[in-house]
Amino acid sequence: MVKRPRETKIKTWVETVLVVAVMSVGAAPAVAHSFLVDATPSSKDHVAAAPKAIKLRFGGGVEPSYSTITVEDAKGKIVAEGATGKPDTPRELVLDTPKLSGAGRHVVRYRVLSTDGHIAQGAYEFFVDGQ
Questions:
Q1: Which of 23, 33, 111, 116 is the most exposed place for a label (fewest CB within 10 A)?
Q2: Which SS3 state, helix, strand or coil, does residue 52 take?
Q3: Which contacts of 3-12 are long-range, i.e. CB under 8 A and separated by 24 or more positions?
Q4: Which of 120, 128, 122, 94 is nearest to 108 (CA)?
Q5: H helix or E strand, kind and range, residue 15
Q6: In this predicted structure, what is the pLDDT of residue 9?
Q7: What is the pLDDT of residues 91-101, one digit of tens each?
């Protein structure tokens, strides 16, 4: 059977629409990955005294049971580790830091499991100016 030019154009158009639809559906979940949107103390913050807790807020929901936050003191020693979350704030994690003391640079590292199944990780620093 010989294809007519009009049938070929319609088939090509339908194939193109299908490819674009499949590609856009495949890209949609990437938007849902959790990424850090706010932190207390925040990156490069200078605080007068050591904070009692580190609070991180993400762009999407996170699984506290599979997520962790660590804080290193000015000497690079891990002084706090863990993470807690609450069902009413699924985008937030908190780490109590009762042993955090001393002036200087502190590094916060996080590794979280998003509710969409992807892992997000990163680090930032803040500074305690005095005690």
A1: 23
A2: coil
A3: none
A4: 122
A5: helix 5-27
A6: 66
A7: 999 999 988 88
